[in-house]
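Reviewer 2 asked us to include a model.

Predict the structure of this chain.
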Amino acid sequence: MTTSHSDDKAQPFARRRFLGYVLAAPTLVTAAQLVPPSEARADIPSPEITELIDLNDVMTAAALPTSGLITVEVNPDGTVSFALPRTEVGQGITTSTAMLIAEELGIPLRRVHITLADARPELLFNQLTGGSNTTFSTYTPIRVAAAVARDRLLRAAARDWGVPVTELTLKAGVVGGPGNRSAGIGELSEKAAGVRAEQVSVRLKPRDMFTVIGKPHGRVDALDAVTGRKRFTMDLNVPDALPTMVCRPPTINGRVGSVANLPEVRAMSGVTDVVVIPTGVAVRATTFGRCIDAVRALRVTWRPGSAEGKSDASVLRELRAAELPLGLPPLTPSVEERFTFHFRSNSALEPNCAIADVRSGRAEVWSSLKAPIVAKEAIAARLGLPLGAVTVHVTEGGGSFGRKLFFDAALEAVEVSERIRKPVKLMWHRADDSRQGRTHPMATSRVRISYLGDTVLAYRQRHTSVATDLGHGLGEIFTALAARLPVGDIGFSETFFQLSQSMPYDFGVNSRLLSETDKGFNTGSMRNVYSPDVTCARELLVDRLAATMGKDPFRFRHDFLRDDRFRAVLDKAAEVGDWGRSMPAGTAQGIAFHSEYHSACAVLVEIDCRPETVGRPVRDGVAGPRVTRAVVAVDVGLPVNPRGLEAQMMGCLMDGIALTLTSSLHLEDGHFLEASWDNYFYTRQWNTPPELKVVVLPDSTGRPGGAGELGVAASMAAVACAYGRATGTMPTVFPVNHGTLSFEPKPTVPPVPASPVDGLDHVR
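Predicted model (structure tokens):
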């Protein structure tokens, strides 16, 4: 048995049998038994590594060996429980997972209860959330486990009633049989349970019988979210866990030298503890407001940080010096450009936070973690405890976009709790997130496309970036599977880069290389990682090449795309967006394409760059151009939940608008000037399109592809292309408004601003 895509095409799921397990338990508990996919074929005549194996395939292969440890449980009350070994951070995977189980078990969606699994080291690489991989990698294992449960329930009823299984049905959680017999799955759960682990064989429901998968469903947690009942880390009531914050250095990764007034701050009203930790001075108090007062009162002498004295200009010089050559000058005509992408914040709307309770010989932690096993191992090592003495509870998170792959807050909470021997509820300030949190690295990208007549001969791209930290688990996957990856002996970042980038156009000989420099910054795998910058640079130069050849940008892309699926997606965006329609001067359309992880996306936008729009007054902000209309066309193979996919694409579009127009950090003298969301300009209402349409194409492969990050790169590129066409000048520095500082920077000492007392003054 194999789960490779080539086998899927030859033998549809409906005709294949899968192995699973019924586990020994009082009620019915089932699991899948899957094996890693067969080795990638070496005889595929393609220069594209991602056509052999991509990042999503690697993550899926790493997860498969432990898929049998993930179980579906049918409860006596007729509900079904599943502890998802991934993290829900707003992307909707609890809903799509519940849909998979509801489909195979024939039960209403509301009766599937999804929780998040605690850190389980035995799962190895099967508890890492990232790379748009959750649905891609869990689609078959979860369905197999649910199908095993379905078959056991039917067999239990057949045995009780003395009838063939073929005469039974399972609908809406009720097994029905001859003579109007019926029994709920809860009644049958104990009878269907196993007294020992038993291997069984099942068939999955054929796609033409789907009633849940592929149909639009609202999120299972929507009501709780809008009514305030949804519980995040800071909502948990852990006894004696009091608010805790950290006084942080004025420069990136500075260290405490000395504290002049510890006794004075400890004596402040409501303060219970003040302690020095590696990242600053932690304050525990009765409220977060009192924490802020104490943090602002501390008088700390700081040692230099890892980016001391650096600025945007100095980092850009480092990047230029580290750029790899594009090769000898071409002998044929070419187009060439260098693009610069500034630092961008990886802050989510939910501040970085964690709860920790460290007592003698044990530790317990609560946090939204996308790599909880790595966090558990690091915490155990830091405390000198055996792994079994550390419990890490994974909570739902209010956003991530890669940020929660890192566990900074959890480690800090553990360190504070260990030193004061009390539970803590630690939360970063918004200023902490902007100034000391994870950032998308500053980068340059040089692109050259050589052509002759109507033929593109070669494409070369050299992407140079401040080093991206992959110390969250992905690097370990690459190490574990190194012998099976067709990328040679290269580093983690280059492996990630090569496995996540592809060339969708028939551009002759093409190569993309990554060079990284400067590990002095706190960087992360921000949503879509390298792809937004790499794709934006490529698509802008595609526009230039089309203009040089005297061709329409859409038609040029269509003619050079290498795949029928790709062309269908591009055509749909152009059709729905009415590509080529007449528009006023200073406005324009832009179109771009991006493919990754067996999925494809095309985005068409219209932008208004007229002076009256760009110059409109916005309080303490940059107005800039406005995207007035957007169409996102997407093909993810089989969309499990089209409504959830639409929401993902809307978020991707907002990311793309931000990355192109307004969203960046300004580095000056070793620190970032931004200190909160009020002066970090992610996409605001004044930049969002009043007209937006997401078009989900029908199932094209029979399997879900990666979707969570898919739309970011195409959206950024489409906005950039539209901007270039509207202004007549191709943008080369991003975001285009980075050179305008529209706010008065807040001081770095004290590190956080005072608690606001004038909120009503700003309501207008």
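The chain has three domains: 5-225, 233-306+352-427, 314-344+438-734. The chain has 21 helices and 31 strands. We have added this to the supplementary material.
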